[in-house]
Each structure stands twice: as C-alpha cells, then as structure tokens.
Amino acid sequence: MGQDRSADIHHERSGIVFRPGLEGVPVTQSAICDIDGLQGRLAYRGYPLEEMAAHSTFLETTYLLIWGELPSPQELRDFEAEVQMHRRVSFRVRDMMKCFPATGHPMDALQSSAASLGLFYSRRAIDDPQYVYDAVVRLIAKIPTMVAAFQLIRKGQDPIQPRDDLAYSANFLYMLTEREPDPLAARIFDRCLILHAEHSLNASTFSARVTASTLTDPYAVVASAVGTLAGPLHGGANEDVLAMLEEIGHPDRAAAFLEEAMATKRKVMGFGHREYRVKDPRAVILQSLAEEMFARFGKDEMYDVARAVEHEAATRLGPKGIYPNVDFYSGLVYRKLGIPRDLFTPVFAISRVAGWLAHWREQLGANRIFRPSQIYTGAKARSWIHGEDRAPATGA
Ligand code: ACO
After folding, report:
1. Per the confidence metrics, is the pTM higher than 0.70?
2. pLDDT in tens, 257-283
C-alpha cells in the first residue's frame, strides 16, 4: 500500500532496501487491532469499532485490549473498582507538578508526571502478573487525574480530588471543569476514549514497543509514548485543526484555503493517514458524535467550516487517498465538552494508554529487543587533524 508515497532507497553495497518511515514494513506480529485501510474498517481484538463505540465503555474496552477477551460482569466490576481506588495521585506528584511552569505544554507536564510514577513503584517485576495488573490499573487510573491536576495547577488552583460516585469519564470531566457533567456529555466523552484507545503500530505505539523491548518499567514505556504522541504529525494535529478552521473562518473561504494549501504544499491538518485511503472510520463516528453534541448543547460555528473543508478537499485531496483522519472532528467535540485546546492531545493520551499497555504486554510475551540497522552515509575513514590545521567548519 502507498507505493507512490515514498521512494525505496536501494543500497548498492549491501543490497539492503531502505523504506523511509518504515512504510509497509512489518516490525512485529500483533493480535490487538486490525485495520483495513482500503475499506475504512477497524476492529479491536476482532470486534468492529462501531460495535465497541455503541455498546462498550472505555474501561471495558481497555480490559479487552490488554487481556484479549471481553471481561465477565464480575471481572469488569473488579477492574472498575480497582481503577477507582487508584485514581488519586501522591501529594509528591502534585507538588512536583506545582513546580512546572504554568506556560508549559500539558503534554510535557503529562510526560514528566507519567515518568515520575516509576519512582514510586518497583521496576524489577515485569514478569509478575500481579505487578502487570497493578501497573495497568495505576496508569489507567492516574493519567486522567494528572491531566486534570495540571489544568487546575496552571490556573493557580489546587487540584480537586476524584469523586468515587462518578464513573471514569464523568469523573475526569468533573476534575477538569469542576462541574459534574451532563450524562450525555459524559457518555459521548467515554465513546471518544473508546475510539482513540488503539490503532496498531502508529508512531507512539511503536515507540512504546521499542521502549518495552528493553524490559524497562511500564511508566517509562508510557512516558516515551506520550512524548511521541505530542508531535503535530501525530496526536498533536487535533490542536492544529481548530486553529486551521478558525484561520479559514467561514465555509465560503474553504475552497480558496485549499487551493493555496495545495499551491504552497501546506499540509491540511486532520487529513491524511499512512494506513487509510478512505475516510478514517473514527472520523466517521466522531462526526456523528459532534452532531449529537451540537443537537443537545448548541452548534459550534466551526462545524460548518469543517464540513466545507471536507467537501472541497474531496476533489483536491481525495484522488491521492487523503481524507479526514481521527483528529479532524475530535477537537470540535472536545471544545463543546469544555476541554481547553491544548488538552486535546493529553485527552488522546488518556485513551491511548490502553493501547500502549496492550502492546507492552504483547511485546513482553515474545520479546526481542528492537535494534534495527542503518545505511551509513557519512565520511569515509579520515585521519585526525590537529586544531591549528583545521579549516573553519561550515554550517556547524
Ligand atoms: N494535506 C495535504 N497533503 C497531504 C496531507 C495533508 N494533510 N497528507 C499527506 N499529503 C500529501 C503530501 O504532501 C504528499 O504529497 P506528494 O506525494 O505530492 O509530495 C503525499 O500526500 C504523501 O504524504 P506524506 O506526508 O509522505 O504521507 P505519510 O504517510 O508519511 O504521512 C501523515 C501521514 C503524517 C498523517 C500526513 O498525512 C500528515 O502530515 N497529515 C497532517 C497531520 C495530521 O493530521 N496528523 C494526524 C494523523 S492521525 C494520528 O496520528 C492520530
């Protein structure tokens, strides 16, 4: 797939073929998530995404992804209760977060605070199933608390404690906005988390697997994945989509914007995907969730701009297989939920931690450390030059 997108580079001396970005190169076997990029289908452990979003909850989806089967009602209740019990974070983590600059990006705050959990829990027991279960519970439970805590801390407030009477998603929105959310809003948010929970070997999951392959602790695995997710070509794109829609400002300006973007080779944010040649199935569901939100809580005027961009892009980018991806409509839903724009990617991380942990477990089940090769393109063997004999370095 995508032969036209990146040229293979053949290395004459070794006969090795180098595919930039590893496009189409399998780096592992995995039973977690199946993507059909031509039909626009996605399934978690064999269950179609549409059914997951309609019937499951984020915690149930997490259980399925990590342990491979849907939980029995009792297993689910136990898992939910464990997660609920571990939502609080140590005062030491909260105090550390108070020292972060309020102007820092919440993804950097999340990466640091996720990594700090490794200071609290032993790193030497990754072959102990109880340690694995506890680590999963802690990360799933505490990541939302840390995202919400940084939001209040940077406003100069103390973080508020989780509420035990609220389910996972409702509790996060409560900790973030200090208001108990409407049940429909909480359910829509939970469905957003389901949609973002796993997507095979994307950059952050690959990063998680590489880190996992060294047998380090799961907190380091998640911290490295958070750092990778932050980039604008990956999870960070959801922030840029809203900025782009605001820049366009009106549906009538969508065509001219796209013309200029194509002429200047500017990327249209929220469009394109290495795996899909059709509209991302997550974008299809997110668009319908956006419409559900707007029907209940009032429309976001940028939705008409988004639809105009999608319409105009169909003839311009569609022939290249470039359509809306998961990030295109998610920001509109999140904004309606009262989530600040620079928290869109941390919210993505709250969800994707489920997929990263599923890949952590799978990697440990058949581990071999990742150590790819390279094609050396640097200088041939050279003799040492003493300082006084050197010509000025250029471009250094
Ligand atoms: N807008 C305009 N043109 C695009 C876009 C886009 N969003 N995406 C790809 N193209 C074009 C490229 O310009 C290139 O054209 P060319 O062959 O004429 O030079 C061609 O399509 C191939 O693009 P690549 O960037 O090489 O494709 P790749 O598979 O490496 O990249 C990516 C995929 C990074 C997602 C890309 O589509 C992109 O940058 N999109 C915008 C950022 C974005 O929305 N990222 C979120 C992705 S979803 C996620 O990570 C959660």
Report:
1. yes
2. 999 999 999 999 999 999 999 999 999
| Residue of 35, 277, 320 with the most ligand 1 atoms within 8 Å of its CB, for mutation | 320
Per-residue pLDDT tens digits for 126-159: 889 999 999 999 999 999 999 999 999 999 999 9
Structure tokens at 364: 């440990």
CATH number at 95 reads 1.10.580.10
**Does residue 253 sit in the same domain as residue 199?**
no
Buried b / exposed e across 295-311, counting CB within 10 Å, b at 16+? Answer: eeeeebebbebbebbbe
**244 and 132, same structural domain?**
no
- Whether 135 maps to a domain, the answer reads yes
Taking CA atoms, 259 is separated from 233, 251, 272, 311, in Å, by: 21, 14, 17, 13
In a domain, 171, yes or no: yes
User: Of 190, 217, 327, 359, which one is the catalytic site residue?
Assistant: 327
Residues lining ligand 1, CB < 6 A? 5-6, 21, 202, 233-235, 237, 265, 267-274, 317, 320, 322, 325-327
Domain count, the chain: 2
pLDDT in tens, 29-54: 999 999 999 999 999 999 999 999 99
